[in-house]
Amino acid sequence: MSMFSIFNVSGSAISSQAQRLNVVASNLANVDAVAGPDGQTYKARQVVFQTVPFGDAGSAGVKVQTITENETPGRRVFNPQHPSADAEGYVTHSNVNPVEEMVNMISASRSYQNNVEVMNTAKQLLLKTLQMGQ
After folding, report:
1. In the chain, what is the straight-line distance between the N-terminal and C-terminal CA atoms, in Å?
2. What is the DSSP string of the chain?
3. E strands within 1-134?
4. Tens-place pLDDT, residues 78-121
5. Where is the Flagellar basal body rod protein N-terminal domain (predicted)?
6. Distance separating alpha carbons of residues 50 and 32, to the nearest angstrom
7. Domain ranges across the chain
8. What is the pLDDT of residue 38?
9. Which of 14, 36, 79, 105 is the residue whose CA sits 20 to 30 A from 24?
10. φ and ψ at 32, to 5 degrees?
């Protein structure tokens, strides 16, 4: 694996984790949502990653394969005065678990930071190598 392929690997990871952070932000913004833009109850979304081999032998990156919706039923709260209440007086809220989403956010943020650090270290090593050749 060449030093330059490190930038491809870490760059793909940074891009994927940025997408994951956007999905987490969307989920957290809809924790207490009753209805989404389509009139249906908001469902939590999860990012599914896929390994992507690069041209170099032995190097691989990552990309977002798909974003799936969690099919767990939402939390039902009895509130007959709410405009979105069903015939029984229950309002269905989103199925977003804020604790899980905070864990996902911390994990994605750390992975993003680690890959930025890998790129900075590789850059410093390349610069040191160039300085040695002077």
Report:
1. 25
2. --HHHHHHHHHHHHHHHHHHHHHHHHHHHTTT-S--TTSSPP--EEEEEEEEE-SSTT-EEEEEEEEEEP-SPPPEEE-TTSTT--TTSEEEPP---HHHHHHHHHHHHHHHHHHHHHHHHHHHHHHHHHHHT-
3. 45-53, 60-69, 76-78, 90-92
4. 988 988 888 888 888 899 999 999 999 999 999 999 999 999 99
5. 7-36
6. 31
7. 3-132
8. 60
9. 79
10. -105, 15
The mean per-residue pLDDT over the stretch 25-39 comes to 82
Quote the pLDDT of residue 86: 82
pLDDT for 85: 83
CB 14 within 8 A of CB 116: yes
**In the block, residue with structure tokens 């952070």:** 21
**Residue 9 and residue 72: Cα distance in Å, rounded?**
34
pTM check: above 0.90: no
Q: Which two tokens stand for residue 16?
A: 């994927």
